[in-house]
What does this fold into?
Amino acid sequence: MAMGGGEGGGALLSELYKSAQKLLIRTKDGLSKLESIEFSTGASSSSSSSSSSSMAVEPLDLSTALRRDLGQIQSFCSEMDRLWRSIPSPSQRGLWKRKVEQVAEEADSLRRSLDRHVLRHQSRIQEAKDRKNLLERRNGDSAHVLRIFDEEAQAMESAQNSSRMLEEAYATGVAVLSKYSEQRDRIKRAQRKALDVLNTVGLSNSLLKLIERRHRTDKWIAYGGMISVTVIVYMFWRWIN
It folds into this structure.
């Protein structure tokens, strides 16, 4: 009975060992594929973050499948560790002990490699997110700079408009003063003619003095008008600046 149990345990042990070996081979192939994807992704790291996100789907699914296979291998190792202890032959027991330990060591090594790959993959995803955020901030800063330039352009345009208004006001003041000067000259000529006429008809000195006072009044009115226009133009210029 003991011999039959040992032979049955050996058959099951051999079957589990073959299954574990197949899973180890599949896991190694999967890790090789992950490394190839990692290198190709690293070579194209200067591409946009959106394409990196789309390429991240397949490695994630593959790493999940590999971790599931490694869990199955660990389960096989636990069962094989129980079975080899029940083999009656010491030499066979030692042989299966080494085989099971070898499978367990390979599985641990593959798990560590997978963990390193997952960490690198997560680091690349975080770097892609950081680059995206940096580009968005740069775009936001560019928009802020453009807005500042636009405000400066508007301020310059407003200053140009104010300068143009000041020039127009100055030209208007010059034209008004010129009109006053022309009117003053015409008044002087009219006054001289009137004096000549009055002298001719022999009007009294009081009337002549009255005309002279009126002339002085008109002259002060003309001067006052010129000064007022000058003051208005100066105050408008000070208000603009």
User: Anything to note?
Assistant: Residues 2-152 form one domain. The mean pLDDT is 77.
